[in-house]
Amino acid sequence: MSFDGCDAGAEFDRQLGVLVDRGYPEAAGVDASAFAAMLAPLREVAVARGAGTAPPSGGRVPFLLVVTRDLVPVEESVPRTTLAGKDRPGVVDRNYRDGDLARFAPAGGVVLPAGGAYLLLDVDRGEEFCGAVPDEAVEAVAARGRSPLTIEEGIALVTLHPGALEKNRCFSLGGSRCGDRRVPAVWISRGAPKLGWCWAGNPHTWLGMASAAARVGTGADRSAAVG
Are 120 and 224 in contact (CB under 8 A)? Predict the structure, then answer.
């Protein structure tokens, strides 16, 4: 079954609807119509880039609509995640000290499109890297011409495809680092997603390394999009 352009448009609309339902407009300080207008230019990109790709399946999806912390802080987006079929909101691990999340920025080699939202293409939760050392998994991802996911991208994956986060199939987010040995990760705790971190040199059998093929934006910044 192909993921044709029409289906890509429908999938974009679904993802936008999820974000609206989860309160992203309010968190961004705009109403639902302004939020939709802000992200609308990305729909055409999704249709063009999504044509001919495989449909969402398990831990792999053709594209994600990513809202950056410029619009919605991580502390507000994490509680808007849930597990598939559950309603308990996601949490930030208490081992993140005050101000820690603001220190995590795109790692070396990770370049984000300008603006408050963009598309992440060909996303894989990376379960093949379960049990691998995170630093080595990041190197393997880069060798394939792919990029590890950032914190916001991992949150987007769980928000828009909750089924991608499963027991023993959780994932690290090596695209965000803060200059020390910590690597952010998303796993399951008490029936909800949890944003935590693990050491870069410590493997975990239940943590893979999520990655993507590309990031695509429109070049519009937030102020221009809001109008």
Answer: no
